[in-house]
Structure formats: C-alpha cells, structure tokens
C-alpha cells in the first residue's frame, strides 16, 4: 500500500516524521509548489514529489492519500481523491458540516473506498483499553464528563487559526478533540445542546462553553479557548469513582479514583507516536477490509458542531 501526502505544511511534516509502517510506504507528496514538494520529499526521503494535486492523483501507484491542508479545503479535496479512486485519511476537522460529510461518505461508499478522519482518539491504544477496563470493572453509570481544551494562539499568527476563509477558530481546531472525547464515553448522542461563545474580531470563535445531555441523563461540559491555555485533562465521572485522562487526546495513561480514594492506573506503551498508530490503524483497515467504525463518530461530532455554530451565528464566507 502506497501513501501520498496532499499538502506540505506543519502537520504534513509531523505525519512524515512519524511514518513507521511494515505494511505500507510513504511514496509521494504533492504541493501547489513543486519546489516545496521537492524540498519536503528530500527532507523526509520520499521517492516522488508532485507540483500539483491532480498529477499526484493521476499516479496509479498511489493507494491512499493523507490530506493535510486547512479545514476549508478538505471537502473539495476529499471529493477529488475519491473520484480518482484513492482511499482518504483526512486531517481533522474532516469537513465543515454534517451535510458535507454525508455527501463524501456516500461518494466513498459508492466507489468502495475508505474514508476516515485522522482523529487521534480513534487510533491510539489507550481508549480501547479504557473501554475494556470499564466493561470488566463496572464503575457504574456515567454521570458527568468534563473536557477542557485551551491552546493559546497569538492573534497575529500567520497560520489559519484566526482566518475565516480557512475555517479557523477553536471549535474546528481543538473542539473536535474535546467533543470526540466526550462521545467516546457517552452512552448515546446528546439530545440537549447549550452553548455560549465569544467570537474574535476576525469572525472566528475564540472561546466557548458547550453543555451536553443525552437520554441517559449523562452530562458533559466542554470548554474551548484560543485566548488562553487550559489543562488537557479529561474526566469521566461514574457512580463509583472517576477516570482522569491526562494530556488527552494523545494520552497513554489514565487514573481511576474510587469513592474511597483508592487509585488504579490504566496505561499503555507511550513510545509510539500518535501518528504512527493512526497510519497503521488506517493501513490495517484498508488491507484487511475491516468495517470503518470511526466515521459514525465523526458524523456525531459534526452534528453537534452544526448546532453550536448556528447558535453562535458563525458562518464562513465559503458557505
């Protein structure tokens, strides 16, 4: 299986640096600039470089494409890749609305191709281990979930963070982690969504609070900010104690504290980069023709995001 990277920015560099796979090869990179593509390929020892996405997609040797461009570009680029017969592993947030996601899922299904989001929580080993631990140890019903995520971004950053035309803002950039974390542990999709958000003068969302409740009466709070740092500590509170997951989403360790204060550590190997897990998980899914179990969760996250953005009145210029 041969991979190509579409885009040659910061996240693409992290993907290439982390590429370790016995079953697949990092074969090509494509950028709108051939000079940038060649420099990227030389840096990461990638055999083939292209100065246009169309040229790369015409290469029959390419099996799967990792899309590493700004959020605003994903929808059209996913369609391009699928139409060219390539499996697609797209950086989060995959697209900017559930309607867009439903469309590209239908396209992938019609062509017998895999489409998945490069969402760390879906692919690293801690979360399956936590679910197994919960099933075996029965800490009781989920009562509350807390998922703060703040990552300070200077307003003069040259990146997409505060740019409306690139679908910037905290919700799409870091809120996707917090909402995915919540849905990993909620028993069903939230039925009640309340939110307050502060929009930056550029138009994107800078800080927000999101409250969620489902039919099981499980409550969740999500706090997001580009204006300050917040601890990336996810908490899942059960009837018999609570789980604390440090440094989510890329966590390798969790601690369960019972009602009487007894602590249990649940951990996995932390020597492997999160991207390496993502690459190998997607590769295995494609090669073994496994059921794609993550795409439904991506749909659920975007369904919440649609409601939240409507409440804020946040509409991007390309919508």
UniProtKB/TrEMBL annotation:
UniProt GO molecular function: nucleotide binding; oxidoreductase activity
Stretches that traverse the bilayer: none
Xref: Pfam families: GFO_IDH_MocA (PF01408), GFO_IDH_MocA_C3 (PF22725)
Keywords per UniProt: Oxidoreductase
Record domain Gfo/Idh/MocA-like oxidoreductase N-terminal: where: 1-115
InterPro entries from the UniProt entry: Gfo/Idh/MocA-like_OxRdtase_N, Gfo/Idh/MocA_domain, GFO_IDH_MocA-like_dom, NAD(P)-bd_dom_sf
GFO/IDH/MocA-like oxidoreductase domain segment(s): 129-241
The keyword Oxidoreductase appears for this protein: yes
SUPFAM superfamilies: Glyceraldehyde-3-phosphate dehydrogenase-like, C-terminal domain (SSF55347), NAD(P)-binding Rossmann-fold domains (SSF51735)
Entry's family note: Belongs to the Gfo/Idh/MocA family.
This protein's name: Gfo/Idh/MocA family oxidoreductase
